[in-house]
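Just curious: can you write whichever protein you like plus the matching structure tokens?

***
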Amino acid sequence: MLYRILFKQCFCLVAVAVLLYSCKQPATSGGNPVVVIETAFGDIELELYAQKAPLTCAAFLQYVDSGWYNRSNFYRVLHFENQPSNAPKSELIQGGIWKSNNPLAVSVKGIPHENTRQTGILHKTGVVSLARAEPGTAGTEFFICLDDEPGLDYGGENVADRQGYAAFGKVVKGMDVVRKIYRQRERNQYFDPLITIFSIDRK
């Protein structure tokens, strides 16, 4: 009888421990990696869709693991008031090492372009994507959408080549932080002062 009681107690303790441990794990769909962007305004958690955009996610995680984003910046912001009236509009914040370590940023080999038609990851509110010039030139610089941005998808009107941008993840926690950053002072599409990214690390 005593053995059964002790067994039940131990079983309950183990079950509780497993439950608590699972609650602490990143909430992802399909075990996707999660990274945390640490800023003075709070943390932003991104879930990366590694199966849908494997090349883009692998490159981004390589930059994260190398510590390249430590003491980097959110440096650019787009909203309706700071874009030409006769051009398609976007609402986003852009970050990376373009300002903090430009020589490294320009030296990075471009990532093969995974467009939204291939991945199925559309530029919806909170989606994170890579900035680029020509397709295949994206590197360390990324942006987060403040609203649904179909013009940034494959075939969208915001990009002359109609290939869109390479979306690869989404904010799963901290969208309020994204909006706080979005509202900070800017001049000619650039934050003034720049918004420091203390680090980006895997969770």
Q: What stands out?
A: The longest strand covers residues 190-202. Residues 82 and 189 are 6 Å apart (CA to CA). Residues 1-27 have pLDDT under 50 and may be disordered.
